[in-house]
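Example record used in the benchmark description.
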Amino acid sequence: MRIGKLVPMIPFFIILATASSWGQTASSSIHGTVTDPNGSVIPEATLTLSNPESGFVRSAKTSDGGTYQFLQLPPATYELTVAAPGFATKKQTNVVLMVNTPATLDVAMQVASTQTIRSACKHAGGQPRACFQCRPDFILAL
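Model output (C-alpha cells):
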C-alpha cells in the first residue's frame, strides 16, 4: 500500500535529480608558487594562462606570498607565461588540465641577463672611452 503512494512521486524525483545536475560543469584549476633562483617567493609576478587553440586567455598576479591560482578553467592544454621585473620571462607549454583535477605548477624564475652599455664621450670623437672634460664611462645593467 505504501508503494502506491510513492509511485506518483517518481517523476518529481527524476526532475529534481536532473535539475541539480544542470548547474554542474566540467572544470579544472591550477595553482602554484613563483620563486627566484634562491627559492625566495616573487610577489606581483604577472602570469598569463592561454589556450592558443581556443583563444582563451586569463591573467593573474602572484600574492605577497608568491602564490597564484586560476579557478574554474575549461579542461584543455594551456601555455603559462610568467614575467617579473628583473627576471627572464618564463613560458611553460603543454600544461594539461583535466576535469575536476586541480593541478600544481611551481615556477622557478631566472635572473634576467645583463648588458653593458658604455657612454660615448663627445670629446673623444664619439668613442666609448672617458675623458677629463666629461664624466667617466658608466655602465648600465638592463
